[in-house]
Amino acid sequence: xxxxxxxxxxxxxxxxxxxxxxxxxxxxxxxxxxxxxxxxxxxxxxxxxxxxxxxxxxxxxxxxxxxxxxxxxxxxxxxxxxxxxxxxxxxxxxxxxxxxxxxxxxxxxxxxxxxxxxxxxxxxxxxxxxxxxxxxxxxxxxxxxxxxxxxxx
Length: 153
Known about the structure:
Elements: H1 2-8, H2 17-37, H3 43-52, E1 57-58, H4 59-66, H5 70-82, E2 86-91, E3 94-102, H6 104-124, H7 130-147
Antiparallel strand pairs: 1-3, 2-3
Protein name: HTH marR-type domain-containing protein
Pfam families: MarR_2
Domain HTH marR-type: 1-145
């Protein structure tokens, strides 16, 4: 009986927000990665495509937006370009710069990923009503903004 109580009662350590978030984050991360992998995407490729959704972006601007090492971005761009999800071309105004553009196929992949991720969210947060989901998102954004988390992927 006591063993059963211990499994349902949170200790001071397991009730810590960081511990709770780390536990749920591991589960959420695995589900999100698996959902994206079904479409051939990773978190890095998703963030990259997301920044291209509103229009072409210079390669240097992407490095700044994503907060990554240039070589890491080049690897992701090579992968996405190979999949036909984006295109790179030299900037006609400055031949030293590359401009990155999402393709129609990339926009479709991004929209599909959004649907897949919405489904993953529905599974992960089924215990929360819509207002609670909004509140959780706002609170997590507030924490992330205050942390200035740096590298996003």
